[in-house]
Amino acid sequence: MEEFPNQHQANEENLVDIGLVESKKDEIPILHNEQDAISKVENLEQPNTGNQILAWNCQGCGSKNTRNYLRNLIRSNDPDIIFLLETKMSEQKGSSFFRTLSLPKIWSFPSSGLAGGIALLWKEDNCGLFYIGYVGNPYTWCNNRKGLARTKVRLDRVLANSYWLLQNPDAKLKHLTHLGSDHLPILLSLEDFSGKKKRPFKFFRCWLKEDSCKDIISQSWSTNDTGSPAFLLNRKLQNVRS
User: Which keywords does this chain's UniProt record carry (predicted)?
Assistant: First the structure.
């Protein structure tokens, strides 16, 4: 079970993460013509994500029948990810029970009295997911208490794989202003928040006839930047355009 930081501890280093998964930095070869580029983008390997996801509003995991039924579901379906709602379990009981479900990665939040409680369990497989950058308030959840009992964390996030990021290079997450709820609403936009319209880049076949074309593209793709495969490919394409 994760402990939320108090008001004086909440910072980007100790925020609660519910999906810390990253893929390895794949090498992206230099592309020497537009047909090669199209082929590489279309055949960009997608990560091997889990094929089985089990979600259940179980209305309490306290009874023996519910726990046994859940174990049977796991044995018969072998899910890669399990999401449970309304577990109605305290931190101590939930932590003890979830460890018996044979999935090594566990994130859970205890119930409040006789209501609530959620749990997310998953296998250690690398899903190749990355957090999408955000703008706005660095925290998306607050317990609405006063003084030293006040807790703020960045709990609500959006993740995407490298293939999706390549298709949506300007995607941004915006943390909006909240009212009443302890969670901020979040807005995922696939366009640049600046509102500037980008002129589409066009590659003319006649450029391939120029002797210097290959050298220009090779030089543009020689970069020491680091990041996800989608980020690196987008950065190299930007270098070619400039």
Answer: Endonuclease, Exonuclease, Hydrolase, Nuclease
